[in-house]
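Q: For a teaching session next week I want to show students how multiple molecules come together into a single three-dimensional assembly. I've collected the sequence lines for a complex. Could you give me the predicted structure tokens for the whole thing so I can convert them for display?
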Amino acid sequence: MAKGLPKAFKKSLWVYHINSGSCNGCDIEIIAALCPRYDAERFGIKLVGSPRHADVLLITGPVTRQMVDKVKRAYEQMPDPKAVIVVGNCGNTGDVFYESYNLVGPIDNIIPVDVHVIGCAPRPENIIYGVIKAWTKLETLEAKK
Amino acid sequence: MNKTITYQIPIGPIHPALKEPVMFEFEIEGEKIKDVDVHLGQVHRGIEWAGMRRNSIQILYLAERICGICSYSHPAAFTLAVERIAGIEVPERAEYLRVIQAELERICSHILWAGVAAHEIGFDSVLFLTWQIREKALDLTEYLTGNRVTKAIMMIGGVRRDITEDMLPTIRKSLDFLKENFEKLRKVFLDDKTVQMRTKNCGILTKEDALKLCAVGPTTRASGVKKDARLDQPYFAYNELDFDYVTPDVLTGEVNGDVYDRIIVRLLEVKQSIDLIEQCLDRMPSGEILAEPKIQKLLIQLKKAEGEAIGIIEAPRGEDIHFVKLVGEEHPHSWKVRAPTYNNILPWIPMLKGEQIADIPIVAASTDPCMSCTNRVAIVKNGHRDILLAEDLHRLSVEKTRRLMK
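A: Of course. Below is the structure for the complete assembly, covering every listed component.
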């Protein structure tokens, strides 16, 4: 686990989740990470309904042509400092859909990504670890101010 | 002063209640919904196109990623079609193992749905309760297949993992846990007064409409239509198992076709699935689990196969149909998927017409749509666009529940 984590816990992370054309596999694991078994909400991590409230952007899916614009807009609406986490192989590399004509992803091509969570679908532990990585980044940015 | 103005609300394409992006346009008069239109295509990934460039075994893993929640049903339907074309005889034990996986997926999917539905009407504690129970079902899935979501257990000619004798106690223990907790869920959903007030006589789909619009799965069964691919066109080992259509009149003696009825059907199906798994465990014969364990040999056999066939599976959301045509090449000539939600989208229109804005989330969720949708709702009013967050929509829904509780 990242160094200096106790310090990082001083601020709760709010997460905005976009599905850019994923198969739901990652999305249900994200919710599973928030539910009692893994319970990320006890650290104050919660899903919010608007990108304007969020510190972290959580993207799943390989980004279809119709969703590019929406992903970009949501990213621009987020206040700085912000972190972007890509959950799942298809957002990171294209995975099984790599050759499809309707994909603009991987998400690296569209917006800058900070944390890549690998897996199809990644386990909730994996997703929580990714959020902690993003947390460390945000706290480092904060400390530099 | 009596002049009413209708205005439009587009919802989508990102919304936390629905899982894949889809967009609706609602025509609203005050709080009442006058008309609904649906825009689709945000999740188009060109899967069928990609499938025509891969061989049949590679397609299994592609089919698995059509939907993460029905990640067993899609490859299963594809396998059925391919097996029919190539004339592959599946060992009897594999057929039973397939039923176990299919029913386990149904349990996970329906409990997941129950949680989402509870969230939509403002009972977040029930969401957590259901997902806690669901984790147990996922543990069982992981124990049997090695993964929680994408299971990769299906194989042309059988399944990839067997259930051995020493695994049985753990499986039975998990099933007992699910059975005990099923009672808890039944009480919360069916006896709670507030749930009843929110869901009874809400989002009604009549039997005529259900037939006319070809609704499938629990959505149509809740309207009293006896339609279940497991009984109508038995596949796997379903013809040897003992079960019946689940319609709401089993419990209440009447069929209304409202959201409450859809809750009843899904909950009873969870119980039915547990029962089916137990039957399978008892009746499973011993023997092989794969018709052809050598993948190279199987590929050569599939390469020679010619013809076309349809595979029909009762997925948790309804009939899932795959059409496959092989022409003696490595890649299939065509592959067409018809997922159950296609049929269950049109019924939204009669369900939502005349309902209130606050009912949109629960009515839309009641068909268990397999699509995800956007967090913003924009109200176009007199040419101005106000952005209404999905949170607001959810808040409206929660407020309505509170109002009713008073």
